[in-house]
Amino acid sequence: MTESTQKINLLGFSPKKLEEFFVSIGEKPFRSTQVLKWIHQFGASSFDEMTNISKALRQKLSEVSEIREPEVLVQNISKDGTRKWVIQLDGGSAVEAVLIPENGRATLCISSQIGCSLDCSFCSTGKQGFNRNLSAAEVIGQVRVAIRSFGPFDPNGDRRVTNVVLMGMGEPLMNFDNVVDAIQLMMDDNAYGLSKRRVTLSTAGVVPQIDKLSEVTDVSLAISLHAPTDELRDQLVPINKRYPIAELVDACNRYMASLKDKRVITVEYTLIAGVNDHPSQAKQLVKLLKRLPCKLNLIPFNPFPNSDYRRPSEDAIQAFKMIMVKAGIVTTVRRTRGDDVDAACGQLVGQVMDRTRRSEKYIPLKDASGVQQEPPR
Ligand code: SAH
């Protein structure tokens, strides 16, 4: 490989780690703030661009380190403004990121792992097995790629990506350290400066990691619930067998209590015909959600190859929604966007080279394409 593989990639260094790096090479800590701004506010990819840094230091930095972004394989821009990137990663796999503009916002949905180990029954990412965690550089790299797609960076405050959600491929809390580093960059004023209300981490419910998260950040939280009872959730979201609903709800409440401001958790509920969309299940869900400060996001199931699940009828979706609304729960239905670039939930095509070989149990490997990813509202 090229020499770049030996160099330290500074792209994913959190502000604190970058400072430690500068100290470790005998430089003043404040230099790291300058470099942080160059990388994340000016979009610099080489040290030569960093004109307020001495030539000698630039030379020294380029000898030991680099700023390396993952490679964009494909970029698609939809008629409705949705943008989608297929991002090539070392090792031959690919993940996808999607940007959805809406009502003056632009929400970027990014991936945290190649594949996923949690194996939720309705999610095609899970069916493809797990390959590896993304590095912090690969996570934050998706944000840089999205911003740059609009042209040169605007250091005076970039508003081209206003919100970020970790709802793409993977379980962010199973890639804890790298995801936290990337989140800290998203929320740091010397980097992307997004408010904690505009960065959302979505989890299937890795309870101990939710507690750990509250110790290091105050990012907004979404949980993938999908069922009102343990009996059903055990089937849809297997990690429920380890951390059942009551424990998840308690962990969410502890997380919310740890925040200094008042916020709600986003509860995601993929509606699947005949599985979790019955009015009686809506009523059970009402009872459950009364125990949590939350808003509900209903996501009509998006089919993918080799899945027997179906999307409920529009009437069933509306009926479910009305039960929630009448019970006083703020509820939205996520609508498909970016149809002409295949950016809808469940239509994105990443590539996972499964290391667990679990996917063979479900689908022949030759059909193992069509990674589900989540364009949120
Ligand atoms: N592992 C994390 C992040 C992945 S995003 C988590 O579970 O939250 C997961 C979201 O994608 C789920 O909440 C679900 O709403 C959505 N999803 C997965 N498969 C889907 C499908 N086939 N159709 C519609 N939404 C799906």
From TrEMBL:
Catalyzed reaction equations: adenosine(2503) in 23S rRNA + 2 reduced [2Fe-2S]-[ferredoxin] + 2 S-adenosyl-L-methionine = 2-methyladenosine(2503) in 23S rRNA + 5'-deoxyadenosine + L-methionine + 2 oxidized [2Fe-2S]-[ferredoxin] + S-adenosyl-L-homocysteine; adenosine(37) in tRNA + 2 reduced [2Fe-2S]-[ferredoxin] + 2 S-adenosyl-L-methionine = 2-methyladenosine(37) in tRNA + 5'-deoxyadenosine + L-methionine + 2 oxidized [2Fe-2S]-[ferredoxin] + S-adenosyl-L-homocysteine
Keyword Oxidoreductase carried by entry: no
UniProt cofactor(s): [4Fe-4S] cluster
Binding positions for S-adenosyl-L-methionine per the UniProt entry: G170, E171, S202, S224, L225, H226, N302
Recorded superkingdom: Bacteria
PROSITE patterns cross-referenced by the UniProt entry: RADICAL_SAM
Database matches in InterPro entries: Aldolase_TIM, Elp3/MiaA/NifB-like_rSAM, Methyltransferase_A, RlmN_N, RNA_MTrfase_RlmN, rRNA_lsu_MTrfase_RlmN/Cfr, rSAM, rSAM_sf
Alphabetical keyword list: 4Fe-4S, Cytoplasm, Disulfide bond, Iron, Iron-sulfur, Metal-binding, Methyltransferase, rRNA processing, S-adenosyl-L-methionine, Transferase, tRNA processing
NCBIfam families: rRNA_mod_RlmN
Role of this protein: Specifically methylates position 2 of adenine 2503 in 23S rRNA and position 2 of adenine 37 in tRNAs. m2A2503 modification seems to play a crucial role in the proofreading step occurring at the peptidyl transferase center and thus would serve to optimize ribosomal fidelity.
Protein name (Swiss-Prot/TrEMBL): Dual-specificity RNA methyltransferase RlmN
Organism: Amphritea atlantica
Underlying gene: rlmN
